UniProtKB/TrEMBL annotation:
Start and end residues of each Endoribonuclease L-PSP/chorismate mutase-like domain: 6-143
CDD domains, sorted: YjgF_YER057c_UK114_like_1
The name this protein goes by in its record: RidA family protein
Pfam families: YjgF_endoribonc (PF14588)
Species the sequence originates in: Teichococcus wenyumeiae
Amino acid sequence: MTGTVEGRLAALGITLPTPAAPIANYVGFNFAGPNLLVVSGQIPLVEGKIACTGKVGAGVSVEQATAAARICLINVVAQVKAAVGDLDRVKRVVRLGGFIAAGPEFTQHALVMNGASDLAVEVFGEAGRHARSTIGVPSLPGDAAVEVEGMFEIA
């Protein structure tokens, strides 16, 4: 039987991908005690390819980057599912962290990260409302335009 969260994903037309394997010496997720799950940063991978590369505000539009942040969150949720099995075990999205590859003149980081934040609320409902940091960086792995990490309280 499909749970509430998986039903919301299906209603949004989202099928979770196989979680991406780490590209270096780290793990995709880790538990900090029995109820806190930390998910490593996820880039906008779609079928093994980075969907959005470059710098936001210099070749990558805010709209493209916002869509990329949404893809990143889908990949974060795929890691959560791999960690806990049943997404209805997520009691709360505690925190999301966003990294936006952009030049020093770019200032719309928050708008980009809304792609991930809005989807968190769509998928997890009120439990998806979270604390957040959004940081501009000069580059990301694979020239990805966006990366998103997460922290989740698990029942």
